[in-house]
Amino acid sequence: MKYKLVALDVDGTLINSNREITPRTKEAIKEVRRQGVEVTLCTGRMLAATKPFAQELELSLPIITYNGGLVVHHGNGQAIYERTLARDSALEIIKGARQKGFAIHYYHDDRLLVEEITKGSQMYAEYSGVPLERMDDLLSLPFNPLKLLLIGEKEALNSFQEQCQERLGDRIYITRSWPIFLEFLDPQANKGRGLKELSNYLGIQKNQVVTIGDNYNDLAMFDYAGVKVAMGNAEDVLKEAADFVTGTNEEDGVAQVLEKIIEGKL
Fold this sequence. Notes:
Rossmann fold, alpha/beta, 2 domains, 5-stranded parallel sheet, 6-stranded mixed sheet, 9 helices, Hypothetical Protein, Haloacid Dehalogenase-like Hydrolase, Chain: A, domain 2, single chain
């Protein structure tokens, strides 16, 4: 086989609006693996929110979580790559987010920590299937978080992103997985870096990697890929960066790509 690895985003890509992996997609993943092409997940989700999908698909490879902040064996939790956000940067972001009234999600040790359980946070927790753990003061936590995620209005988040980028510069990596989410990580924590670390671990070359995604945080993943595929429901910027566009996540877009690989048409 020409390709050795397919890296799949989860939300808006692997799963449909019912948060399900369709039978056609499951079968395509099984068949492409039978033909020697391995599959991994490359997502902004935390490990606890990604592991059920990896188990459902019976994936054997490490998976890329937290937008590349943690590349980990989902079976035993052994990390092969991990980058946390510096605490001083995290504190500055939290202080600014408080002033703006954004909901703040603080990720540490695969736990989702919040100061306040807002409607947006509840929605996020229900969607991702992970519990919220309330803390009195996130600023008092002595850890370097794997990620900070803010929830708010799109325009307000856009403005805050510009402020943080100007103030913190290359000390942080900022990305979006949804218009109302703003995510902050270490500069060496992005999907492209996570995919590179996994490929090096497996001895796979960049040109042997196929990536499929739908949102802004997948652009970094596209930077480390032989073939870049955007979902039909992807953001326009991703479609422009892709080698081609497949069907939407309601049309088995992932399966369409894998079937092309299986049939030798890609």
